[in-house]
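Reviewer comment 2.1 asked that we show a complete input and output for one of the modelled complexes. We chose the S-adenosylmethionine case, as it is the one discussed in the main text.
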Amino acid sequence: MSGDDSTNLSAATARTKKLFDAYEVCNQQQNRYPEYPFIDEPVRRCAAKNGMLYDIGCGRGYWFNHYQELGVPKANITGVDLSDAAVSRLHSQGYRAIQADSTKMDRVGSEVADLVIATGSLMVTEDTHQAFKQCRRLMKPGGEILVNLYNIYHPYFWFIHKLTWPLRTYGEKWVRYWWLPFLFFFQVQNYIRRGCFLNRPDLEAVFYDQVMVPFAHLHSVREVRSWMEESGLTVLGTGYNLWGSMFWVNGCLAAKPATDGPR
Ligand SMILES: C[S@@+](CC[C@H](N)C(=O)[O-])C[C@H]1O[C@@H](n2cnc3c(N)ncnc32)[C@H](O)[C@@H]1O
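Response of the prediction step:
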């Protein structure tokens, strides 16, 4: 499915869209580093049953090569993202991709996915819980869901996102200069995590993604677990992503009962 769902966006989500369109233009990464502990197990199970995998907030399909390496055919992967730039790029590579706001996803359908993966995306929407409910709606009975969100107990996003609100609120027109003071911080951080420095466009992309993004909600594992259990899912595992053992993103994996209907 193609087309554009941008006309119904709130002003804040339209700002998020603009930002991630810019992010897609300057970011040069293609594959994600293996930082998410649960990702392989559910993807392998999805591949074993030739299931349909939906990646919500997929960006340019950072995980799509990995899914295929684990046995999910390209035709079984669907990406959903707010950014037109990301979706167009996926279409040009022959992927199925849908432009939609994950807090609505009316155009995506219900009970379509054997596995829903939302890594690092639901918490930058206006309402993380609402986006989670939409993801749950996509799950087929017997399907699984993996959600990764910023950890509320880690100081990183309090420092990098919450304290920098004046930049986002008053300084957007100077954005090209603002990322310079963060150069040192992000370069040191990247060197510790990955043993290399970022190039200039990737540095700018990280700045957009982590400082300028309008929303960055922080959540605990307990909160996400309660969303999953309240909506009738069985939690299969919770944990943290080990970016340099820093626990700044948490992960929750859950399954939907085989006899359950949509909510
Ligand atoms: C940091 S990237 C994460 C990409 C990828 N999932 C990963 O694991 O690296 C966040 C993505 O969420 C998307 N996004 C932000 N708000 C969204 C929304 N309301 N609906 C759908 N996608 C959204 C952005 O366009 C961006 O591609």
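Residues 13, 16, 20, 32, 57-59, 62, 81-83, 86, 101-103, 119-121, 124-125, 209 surround S-adenosylmethionine (CB under 6 Å). We note this here for comparison with the apo prediction described in Section 3.2.
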